Amino acid sequence: MTVNPAHSTLWPAPHASGAVAATVHVPGSKSVTNRALVLAALAAEPGWLRRPLRSRDTLLMAGALRALGVGIEEGVGPDGSGEAWRVIPSGLQGPATVDVGNAGTVMRFLPPVATLADGAIRFDGDPRSYERPLNGVIDALRALGARIDDDSRGALPLTVHGGGALDGGPVEIDASSSSQFVSALLLSGPRFNQGVEVRHTGSALPSMPHIRMTVDMLRAVGAQVDTPESGGEPNVWRVTPGALLGRDLTVEPDLSNAQPFLAAALVTGGRVTVPDWPAHTTQPGDKLREIFTEMGGSCELTEQGLVFTGSGSIHGIDVDLSEVGELTPGIAAVAALADSPSTLRGVAHLRLHETDRLAALTKEINELGGDVTETADGLHIRPRRLHGGIFHTYDDHRMATAGAVIGLAVEGVQIENVATTAKTLPDFPDLWTGMLGN
Ligand SMILES: O=C(O)C1=C[C@@H](OP(=O)(O)O)[C@@H](O)[C@H](O)C1
Ligand SMILES: C=C(OP(=O)(O)O)C(=O)O
Fold first, then answer.
1. Which end of the chain has fewer CB atoms < 10 Å from its terminal CB, N or C?
2. What residues line ligand 2, using a CB cutoff of 6 Å?
3. pLDDT of 119-164, one tens digit each?
4. Which part of the chain is the Enolpyruvate transferase domain (predicted)?
């Protein structure tokens, strides 16, 4: 966890002079956009993606698929409305080089796709991507018949020598460090000769809603998937081989990126409306309705969207975040401003995210005068009177948005490298100042 000297620009986080009152249109979900791109690329016919997220992670995914020969064209959608991508599948071809940046979805979802290509596909990325776990995907693909060169580190950089097809079949993995290992194998599973049966053998699996998202999206394009929830064995997912349909999919707003805006209502005792909040979704961000209500707000799903209202009080919380780990930085920011302590549990695997998020949150909140300690699997946060200072982000988009939430309540907070929000929300600074009416 080191500060990147190349990004020493400081952004004065706006301080809220009163209760916010705003409607914020949150761009599309990263997790849905990148799954939809992969599934559309593997389909037997062209498909449409409407309102896709355009951010570093999704542009890297689109760029990688284009490098493999997939057509991804700008369009306006079949009904003439809205921005869209038309995805035209084709025989996947190497040689190609894929830049994964620091996108977990790209580094994990694409090596299985590359096994289906003809030729060598080289994967490389940001320095941090070399440290993020990938062994579950590499080992599983080898067990299923793939040829991969990875310098024996079980991590990036690596080359997948695609043979145009993969046997597939049953495989055991330990996905306790990332649910994305399971999602990765399932997404390409319909195109493996024998499909795939993934058995998770390790300790608790994080981010289950993201695995449900994978399963739902596979079923929506015609795949047959058996899951523990559909009467199968615990920790076993089975995908039957078969052709995938090209669909017309509208991407939901990114509910995890709605988090800082809902937090703004909570922290300032204001009201924020997020239009197009889905009534039913597998996105983990939907859990914020419950978590931020317990922390002092209230919400209502209306025709206008989700209306979230702060009460003026912020309460601490004791919560297991293993299912919704990506919400941790934003919850920690609110907890640091609460009227009682918080314990955030079940998120040891966050040490292997964009940065070591537990260490980064502890250090940065404490440098503003906070009292945070790391536990084996989370954080204890005892609210203290905070003061201004530099909030470092360690190239982590969710550190930047967490710092902005603290800045609403604490004068003089400066976010180092707010541009890192481009990973999933390039519009963040403008949306934030727009929400505040500036
Ligand atoms: O599949 C996905 O889209 C994601 C799964 C989760 O990963 P982990 O299980 O590695 O935490 C989540 O944290 C990440 O932001 C997105
Ligand atoms: C963990 C995250 O991203 P990634 O998809 O890179 O794992 C995140 O967005 O919080």
1. C
2. 103-105, 326, 353-354, 398, 424
3. 999 999 999 999 999 999 999 999 999 999 997 788 999 999 999 9
4. 17-430
- Region at 401 (left for phi over 0; alpha for psi -120 to 50; beta for the rest): alpha
Is residue 49 over pLDDT 70?
yes
CA distances in angstroms from 270 to 212, 308, 336, listed in the order given: 33, 8, 18
- Is residue 322 within 8 A of residue 204, CB to CB? The reply is yes
Side chain identity, residue 2: T
Chain segment 65-114, per-residue pLDDT in tens: 999 999 999 988 777 767 899 999 999 999 999 999 999 999 999 999 99
CA distance linking residue 192 with residue 18, whole number of Å = 56
State in Å: Cα 332 to ligand 2 middle.
17
Fold of 5-27+254-435: UDP-n-acetylglucosamine1-carboxyvinyl-transferase; Chain (3.65.10)
Residue 116 corresponds to which tokens in the numbers above?
């289906």
Phi and psi for 170 in degrees, rounded to 5?
-80, 145
From 188, 187, 186, select the one nearest 200 (Cα to Cα).
186
Mutate which of 326, 351, 352, 401 to test ligand 2's pocket (most atoms within 8 Å of Cβ)?
Answer: 326
